Amino acid sequence: MTLFPLINQQQNxxxxxxxxxxxxxxxxxxxxxxxxxxxxGFAIEFAAMLNCQxxxxxxxGSCSACKKIKKLEYGNLELVYPIPRSSDQSxxxxxxxxxxxxxIKDLQDMIAQKAENPYVxxxxxxxxxxxISFIREIKRKTYLRSQxxxxxxxxxxxxxxxxxxxxxxxxxxxxxPPEKTTFILSTSNKDAILPTILSRCQSLFFPALSPxxxxxxxxxxxxxxxxxxxxxxxxxxxxxxxxxxxxxxxxKFVTMPLEIMRAVAVWNIKSIYEFVETLAAIYREDxxxxxxxxxxxxxxxxxxxLIKNHAETDxxxxxxxxxxxxxxIKAFPDFDPHLAISSVENCIDFINRNVYINLALLNMFFNxxxxxxxxxxx
Length: 378
Fold this sequence. Notes:
By secondary structure, the chain is α/β, with parallel strands linked by helices. It has helices at residues 10-21, 39-51, 64-70, 101-116, 132-143, 164-175, 195-198, 211-220, 225-235, 239-246, 252-266, 269-285, 287-308, 322-331, 337-352, 357-372, 374-377; strands spanning 28-32, 77-80, 83-84, 127-129, 152-157, 181-187, 202-205. It is built from 17 helices and 7 strands. The longest helix has 22 residues, at 287-308.
């Protein structure tokens, strides 16, 4: 069993169990992989494995250490995460001294949510870096005598966001690590971490979750079956993102692509320009959601290919739009799915490279229209 509700990654879990069994726990670990793959959850799970007082090789969930870790309130477990730079006025100051009472309450709520679901991110507004003051505060706490027995575990989430001074300060800790202490760096960007830090860490790769495991997880959360395929595709194995999508208005990922396709099909210029403005506004407000809406448009063509080729349609993303997509195929039997899908992908790429968003969207809409009328264009 695991103390936290973790998904798959059994191989890594077995490696960590074996390290404890063989008394080969490293001073530092690097848990790396794409966002939402579970590395943060496994970091706090490892803390429970190391400190469970039952000594059965996995957390019992009943001892005092397990109960405290389950709430992320264990004295020997420290969490490090990005905080707003404005709070770091001095490298020797308390990293949270600029936090208001409301800010502290919000942070406590985030940590409580993390305890309930380890795939939830501790995401403080305007937090972009882990400053040196946070690392020095952790160093101070690490060298203090603890009231708890067992291992001290310092989990550093988004470790690639340590500032250069913070990374150098952390490196000095690794050069002379305290006894019975392990540091766990969790990151989705291994290449952004100092090579000298990487060389002192034992690395474990956490791959993106497979559609099968993500599907089982979403079913356990009572997500409707006709939404699961779309969520899996939009999240690309990222559980954190999948949960965010579940908590949004899922209908927009279905209805907006349908409305876009109708406007493109009849080439309604007024509607096209309205969609350009709407999508540009969404991008400014929520760039990930903007990308997900565009991907939902590309999934329309993927589903159309499945239906046209009489393939297994259980894998459809827009299963709720089967009738509408079937009508689309009858109206545009010679559509070019490659051109359509590449048009969407190119638009996302252009915007990532800071091409004027309205121009990139207009170009995408024009190419989508072209993809529907391939016979006329020849």
